[in-house]
Structures are given as C-alpha cells and as structure tokens.
Write the structure tokens for this entry.
Amino acid sequence: MAERRPEGGAPRHYHLGLDWGTSTTKLVLRDYSLGSNSAAYVLRPTGTQEGGRYPSAASVHNGLVLLGDAAVGRRGTTEYSLKAKAETPQLFGTRVPGAIRLTYEALATLYLAHIMKLALDVSDVLARGAGQRPRMGVTLGIPTERGWKKTPLAPVFLRMARTAYDIGVRRGIDPQGCSEQEAEEMLRVERPHDSRTDTADYEQWLRPELGAAMLWAFRSPAIAPGLYSCVDIGAWTVNTSYFRIRHDHLDGEYRDKGGLSFFGGACSPPGMNEVCTRLANVLRVVDPTELRGREDALLDTSRERLIEPAVKKMFDVWRVGFGHAYQKEQIQERWRELRVFAIGGGSKVRAVRERFRQFPVEHWPAPKEAPVLGPPKDLYEVPSGGVPSRTQLRGDHAFLHVAYGLSVRHGDFPPFHLSDAVSTLTRRDTVAPDSRRRNVRCRCGSLTIPGSDRCRDCE
Ligand SMILES: Nc1ncnc2c1ncn2[C@@H]1O[C@H](COP(=O)(O)OP(=O)(O)OP(=O)(O)O)[C@@H](O)[C@H]1O
Ligand SMILES: [Mg+2]
C-alpha cells in the first residue's frame, strides 16, 4: 500500500471508462497519446470472467477489506450487489455487516479505488514501455435517465468517484487487504469544492450509462446510419436509449455517420436480480446471486411464466424510454425503421431477449433487429509488455459497450442531452406516461399524438 512516487518522463494521457456494474465491472482504458489513431484496451485484471467482467464483490472479513476477486466466495459477509444499495441513501450510509464502522458507501468507494489502481498499473506499464509516465483520468458510469440536478445519485457517485481517484490514482494506493482503520484514514480527504458542485463537475466525472452505450453503435463499422434503440439489461437496472446516427458535415466534409441525435431513454430497476430472486424462490436457493449467469439454462417453459412479471417490468422501462423519445420524434412512419440491439447480461437469456422483439407500443409493427455489432475499430486487447501491437478484441463483447462509451473524455463524446423537461418515471411507477392512451387511434389506425385525436401524419 505504498504511496506512488513521482517518476520522470513526459506524461502520457490515458482515460479509464469505469462501468461499475451491480454484478461485475467492465473496464476500457483509452490511450490518448496516439492522436487520431487513439486506441482503447479492454482491461482484464486477475479474476476477470469471460466477457471482460471483473467481480463487483466487496466485503469486510476478519477486520480486513476484501475487494473484487479477493472477496468472491466469502458468502455471508460479501456484498454482491453493492451498487444497488446506493438506491436507498439511508441504507448506503449505514454500517456494512461484518464491519465495525465502514459504511456501504465507504466500501463502494474503496472498491472503486481498487479498480482505479488496477487500471493505473496497466497504464504505468504501457507508458513506461514508451519511456513516459502515465496520467490517467476516469469517467464513471451512473444509472440515470435524468439531468444532473434531478438525479439523486449524482452527488453520491461524484463523491465516490473523486475520493476513489484521490486514493487509487493521485496517491496510488490499492486498498485491497487493508484494515478498517487504514481504510478510514484513506477515506479522510479534504474536499472544499464539494459544496460548490456544478454541472461541469458531473460531466467531467460521470456519464449516464444509457448515453455511454450509444457510442459503440456509432463507431461500429457494422452499423449504418439510422434510428436505433439500445437496451442494456443489467443485474439491477434496465438502461435504454433511442437515438439516430445521422450524416453530418464536419469541417466542411460530408460524413455518412457524422452525428448522434439522442431522443430519449429510461433507466430503472428491475434487472436480472429480480429474475434470479424469482428463480431462487422456486428452486429453494437461499442466495439468488448464486444463480447469476445460469438463468437461461434454468428457464424451462414452465419457469418462464414465473419470471414474466419481472420481464414485463423490464419491457415497461423500454416503453417509458419510448414515451420520452416519441416527444422528440412524433412522426410514426419514422419509427418503422427502428432497429434494436440488446446488450448486458439479460441479452443472454432468451426469455428476456425475445420480449424486446415487439415494438414498445402495442399494435405497432415489430422493430428490426440491429445487425451484430462488431467491435469498433479502435478497441483492442491490452498489448503485452507495453508493445503497442494491435490485437483485435477477442470473445464475447456483449458487456463492454458502456465501458467503451465511458473511455472517451467529456469533450470528445458526441453531444447528447438528457431532458429535464419530460416527466420521468419514479422507481415505483414504471408505466409509460403515454400508456393510458396507447389504444387511442387515429382514423388511419396509427397512434394519436398527445392532446389530439389524430396521428402526427394526419394532423
Ligand atoms: N450468460 C450470462 N453471463 C453473464 N451474466 C448473465 C448471463 N445470463 C444472465 N446474466 C445475468 O446478467 C446480469 C449481469 O449482467 P451485466 O453485467 O450486464 O449487469 P451489471 O452491469 O453488473 O448490472 P447493472 O448494469 O444493472 O449495474 C446478472 O444478473 C446475471 O445473472
Ligand atoms: Mg451494467
């Protein structure tokens, strides 16, 4: 746990996309020193599972803080859905079972510091291979569909990201295996600017997961311009976005895929945790997290019925997202070209994936499936020994979209805005604002627009 000493050499700039998932964490490190040839690497610390997934587990065991891979298997004290606890602020500030004083928020911060230090070590090796020293920035994903001012998680996530950065990057400490007392000392950081947080701070440190996931499609050579929806079905939340990849003129030059128009989206529980809980009830398994990754195999036709309420709620999140998007693009005809791609753990489960083959509004023609999203051209495996060889990404990449979209610094991300103007769903109300009127039809048979008895095309 020695603090980092300053080293010589010119700085080499990296940016870490930190997709802290409820079940596993996905990491993409972008090397910014290569200019227009910028390359991003999927990080796979020891203990990473197939698909680039590092366990989001953490525990306090016998007075020691155990993080990630080291915490796996210690059932009883290990937290396997730490991120989901942030939803309840009163709980997040309370003591973790097994700890004397550390709270859930403190443990989550230490976990993020551990991750950042692991990434810093990789950037250290890469930079030193080029005779330089690393400078690493970080963007942390946040599950939200709202603007910063209306996102209750934003101040909490910002506080965790900054403190973790202080520990893991500025001071270069990995809290893995430290005592509670050492942890408390690490977490004691002076931060006068906390009280003056503004939008720029949030944008520099955080990016909504649903926004980040769009970038992969934008950059993937397999994806043509058009209207898309991405559905990311995670362990805790469903994140969904509706957007158009469009042509544009950049610096006077025509680009087929020059811009990204974000229409709207939604983010809410439930995710696959609820599917696991329902399955655990029938299988009489005490800890539902033991079933993670086995859902597809466990779901025969009779059990599919049991998870249907959970799947319906996931579909409702998608529908709420559509309600938001439709307010910006009200010509129904345009939605006929919608293409959908599902990512995240839920996309591996047939009974869940299939639900997203229907249009989010009843009786509208089914959307098309997006072509298989091949990896973007700038995403690689980490070069071994600091040699900048370009080994294309291998294996499953259904989990990496968000981390890839977070690896781009704020100023380099195509602009998009979350809307504060539209009514947003509450955690309890996952039904689209539009859904009460979903059967109100225009004389041509299309869905009417809000406040009218005609569809947009007949108005
Ligand atoms: N084949 C699979 N591989 C991995 N996860 C799977 C698979 N099948 C189902 N799952 C479920 O998907 C979830 C993991 O997906 P993912 O990694 O996208 O979630 P997360 O990013 O950890 O969560 P969130 O985005 O909600 O914070 C787990 O709940 C797991 O049980
Ligand atoms: Mg996720």
Q: What stands out?
A: The first strand starts at residue 11 and ends at 20. The domain at 11-209+376-412 is CATH 3.30.420 (Nucleotidyltransferase; domain 5). Residues 419-439 have pLDDT under 50 and may be disordered.
